[in-house]
Every structure is written in structure tokens, then in C-alpha cells.
């Protein structure tokens, strides 16, 4: 057993030093938000390097246990897919797996990440930080959709920011589904956007643009996406029951992570996520995956931030409701969008509401619990 060291994620140099020591067998690291330096436990197993607390939009927080081998396998596979080691820009908090992995990848590349510093994400700071990169070395960064949207909005008005965005050899984009329109706008500006899928339980994204990283594998069991590979987490801190529910070992001895997401392979063999298994409603006797409805309506202009939640209906049981942070659209337009996506008529949204600002979690994801609580039942 060895110590678990709490480190402020806002102190990037200290967190970088602590992660470097952890990868070398030193104390495991528990990155925390500024002002909260209480360790969740005194000691952990010797092979652990990092404990990351999740902040999912529907589940209660979990503390995910990651070994040095899992972090290294993920980072090495990422560099293999992107085309080699490079310099990383840290634009996400280090207490989230995407931010911590930027630091890990940097360490394995023999460098330290370029950090945006304290304060909220700002497109100009993002652009100015990119100037410090050596132009002969590949440059990478990792963003969530809300950050990319801010950069793209600014880049369409500012050539300096546009040039900075286009200078990155890859922009990893994860955390939640991104509107196709946002990706198209970013690519028009010269950005190479790589959509990632994964979680803290897989040491970050382990499926890039629908294809698993080297060493990772995907299977679909009863429509649920399950993942395996050397980047899998060891489980959850002091929570054996939740660990047993999330991870299972098959007859061959292979350990799988049950994501709770619904998915399928498309005609090209790429993974396509339909939504959360716990976000499927029964509407008039028909199963409706709200994630598919959300993907369809986000294709409409101005609805890139739209969130689809269930609303109780006395006749149908539950129906789909769309909530946006500002733009407004008719129910007819929403119905046309879901019909065009090939969804069943039961998937047509029956309510549209604006919540400004849209409730968000600290991770940048929409707070679905708060959004759902704001929607009154149909009468």
C-alpha cells in the first residue's frame, strides 16, 4: 500500500510533478479543485497512480482508480494514432481525466504541458498560448464541445484565433456528443477534430472517430457498449459493489467495462453511440432513445446546445422535451428534424423551452437533473 496525495488541479506545475512521481511508482495522485485538499483515503494499492472523481450528468460521483500501466497504455496509443509524440496544450482542468491525460501524455513525450493558466476558458488565451509552440513539433490539445464552440465563434471573426486553431495537428474532442455543424465549421477553419469516446474508467477516450485505439476493443451486448483494453480502470475507490456492476470478466478472462451507453456499428464498422441506456423512454409503447433525438435536433441552426429530457404524459407515458440555452424553434421544425433522422414518430418532441443560462456542471456538461426538474409534466 502507498499514500494517496491530494494535489490542487489549479497548480499545474505541482500536479505535473506529482503525476511524474506517480508514474514512477511514487504516491498516487488525487487531483482536486482549488480549495479542497482533503484526501478520500489514506492509502491505495501500490500499482495505482491516479484517482479521478467523476462528475457525470446523471450518476452520483465516483472515484475511479487508474494504474500507471493504464495511463501509459492510453497515452501511448493516442500518440500512435495521432502520428507521434508532440507538445500538448492543457485547456481542461486537471481533476478531470481529459485534463490529467494531457499531463500524462506530455510527461511521456518528455515535456510539460503548455497551460492556459487560471480563470475560465478564453479563445484569445488559447490562441496566444499556441504561439509558444515549436513549429517543428506536432501540437495537440483536448477540448470539450462548449470550448470548441467558443473558439470557432471567435475564430470566424478573428484571423489570429483562426490561425491558432488551424495550427494544431489534432484537437481531441470529447466529454459529450458534438453537433455535426460545429465540427464542419471547425474543419472549414483548418482544424483537425478527432472525436473521442471513453470515460475515466477507460483512462480517457479509447475510441477515436468510432475506431478503438490500439489494444482497445468494443463489443455490443444487448445494445450496450462494452469496452476492454490495457487502459481499463481498476475499479472504484472503496466501492466494491459499484465496481462489480460496472466491470465484468468473461469466460476467457477478459475484463470488460459496461459503459451504460447504447450503441451500434455503422456500415463502415465504426461505433455509433445512440445515447444512455437509462435515457430510453417508452412513449406510447415505443422505445425512444433520447440521445438519438438530441443528435437530430442539434443539427438545427442555433440548437447545438440543445438537451432532450423526458416529460411525463398522461396518455403516452413519457415524451421528449427539448431545452435550449437561447435559440427558439417550432415543434414542427423539431418533428421534421427527427423524421429526417429516421426516428419513429413517437420520438417527435412535444415541448420546447428556453433556459438561459442552461444549467451546466463544472465539467462543462449540461446538468440534466436540473434541466429535467425544470420541465413540468404534460396535462
Could you characterize the architecture of this molecule?
The chain has 2 domains: 264 residues, ANL, N-terminal domain (Rossmann fold, 3-Layer(aba) Sandwich), CATH 3.40.50.12780; 99 residues, GMP Synthetase, Chain A, domain 3. It starts with a strand and ends in a 6-residue tail after the last helix. α4 crosses α6 and α9 packs across α10. 28% of the residues lie in helices and 30% in strands. It holds the Pfam family AMP-binding. InterPro entries: AMP-bd_C_sf (IPR045851), AMP-dep_synth/lig_dom (IPR000873), ANL_N_sf (IPR042099), ATP-dep_AMP-bd_enzyme (IPR050237). It comes from Agromyces larvae. This is AMP-binding protein.
Return the average pLDDT rounded to an integer. Answer: 92
Q: Count the helices. How many? A: 11
User: What would CATH call the homologous superfamily of the largest domain?
Assistant: ANL, N-terminal domain
CATH top level class name of the largest domain: Alpha Beta
The total domain count is 2
How much helicity do the residues have? 25-40%
Number of strands: 23
Q: Which band does the percent of strand residues land in?
A: 25-35%
Largest sheet: 7 strands, mixed
Q: Can you tell me the CATH topology of the largest domain?
A: Rossmann fold
| Radius of gyration from CA coordinates | 21 Å
The stretches of 5 or more residues where confidence is low (pLDDT under 50) are none
Distance between the termini: 58 Å
Strand order of the largest sheet: 7-6-8-9-10-11-12
Q: What key phrases describe this protein's structure?
A:
379 residues, alpha/beta, Rossmann fold, GMP Synthetase, Chain A, domain 3, seven-stranded mixed β-sheet, five-stranded antiparallel β-sheet, AMP-bd_C_sf, AMP-binding protein, ANL_N_sf, AMP-dep_synth/lig_dom
